[in-house]
Amino acid sequence: MMSINKNLVVSLFCGIGGLDLGFESAGFDVGIAIDNNPKVLELYQLNFLNTTVLCRDIGDISAAEIRELIQNKYPDWDGEITAVIGGPPCQGFSVAGKQNPDDDRSQLVIKFINLVVVLNPTMFVMENVPAIEWKKFSEITGNAIALIGEHYILSKWLLTASDYGVPQKRQRAIWVGSKFGEVITPTESDKKFSVGEALADLTHIPINSQTDTWELTQKDEYAEYLDKIFPGTSKFPNIISGCQATAHTPATQQKYGDTIPGEKEPTTWAKRLSADGFSPTLRAGSGNRTAARPIHYQYARVITVREAARLHSFPDWFDFGTSKLAAHKAIGNSVPPMLAYAIASQISAHLEEQLCPTIISQSAVSGSASALRTRSQLHLLELETVETSTGNLRIIHSTTQQLGSINHSTSIFFGGNNIRIDNTRSPPKKISSLPYIQSAICASLRLLQRSTQQRFC
Asked: Which CATH code of 3.40.50.450, 3.40.50.720, 3.40.50.150, 3.40.225.10 fits the domain covering 8-185?
């Protein structure tokens, strides 16, 4: 049975679950995950035992089917979805790909948004490559943005993974839609890790090793940090998989060994990692003059699956199966979990902020709540003037319309003092003004807290 504050998430184009892992670790419940690749879903199920998975094309599944899956999983479900998340395949937009607007994969963005609108979650998160913002794709993105604008406030972020604790310079465009208002960009992490810090504690794997599992006697700070953010349940936490090295020929080993860290090997275009820097973007396949896997900074070989996982911020317990090729491709297609965790944490903070009028009004001021209306009650009454009072605190929010603009005015009265906030803004079509009321009340209450601290502390 799910609680009212269930934070239910539906994941589309889930892949192996990099985005999902970040949301789960931030306190969300990824109840349903959908992808059209059965092999990838097999890997997903190895790591997300409590999520219901469905192997289907996004264009062939309806919102009604997804809702039926949720209802079957959670019989007491109240019909609300907190967020729909996903990263439509980026090859149609990617610099490493052909960048063809007519590529069927480019049209998946519209299909994703269409399904989001029908599912009607409180929020959505869409991840893609930065090139999605380029002018050549404006017809696709313009149609998507127009549709989003009828139902959500859209925030666009351009995030670099290395700013959020991932030892990889991977940039991604993130679209966040909210019924409550704009969502600010996540604050960068205080922790930054280099390639050397991410890989130094891994066992020295022989060049032609065919052993996939190794035992770690001690983990460095980075690995322990990942274990803390993404705790696992393995009975053998020091046994890690994905350690099988590629068997290179002596000639290839010579070429790789002669390549200077930070430079590319001229025949294979494989870049050699620098221990003191960040990894380049790990790709699902070879791109334009870019090999799929970089060369290890210390050894004359390409990185292993586990090393790629570390550079992508997957914890050591994450299972990538037995196929090296499939694992590297799945990692390259996924969102780094630490980046996903930063995104999800910001979404969580945004949602919590919308609840603050009820929470603060009941706890920050002494006295019982006399006329406190909850969010659902306010939405039901569709009030033009909202008044909330508890003890000696009184909040009045009024909404007026003039020349097509929605005008919001919030006043709070506390101990004879009046704090007033005015905001003029036109909400998108089909959106109730309630979220704007809540945001204004939240802002007023934050001012109230500061004012009372100055007055009594």
From this structure: 3.40.50.150
Residue ranges matching CATH 3.40.50.150 in the chain:
8-185
How far is the first Cα of the chain from the last one, in angstroms, to the nearest whole number? Answer: 44
Name the residue with tokens 């930054």.
192
- The answer to whether residues 23 and 14 touch, using CB atoms and an 8 Å cutoff, is no
**85 is written with which tokens?**
């998340």
**What distance in Å separates the CA atoms of residue 247 and residue 433, rounded to the nearest whole number?**
62
Q: Which residues are catalytic?
A: 90
3-state secondary structure labels for all residues of 101-162: CCCHHHHHHHHHHHHHHHHCCCEEEEEECHHHHCHHHHHHHHHHHHHHHCCCEEEEEEEEHH
Name the region of 451 (left: φ>0; alpha: ψ -120 to 50; beta: rest): alpha
- List the single range of 98-102, 107-111, 281-285 with lowest mean pLDDT: 98-102
Q: Read off the DSSP letter of residue 104.
A: G
pTM of the model: 0.78
Mean pLDDT of 149-166: 97
Task: Say whether pLDDT at 179 is over 50.
Answer: yes
What tens digit of pLDDT does each residue of 239-255 get? 999 999 888 999 999 99
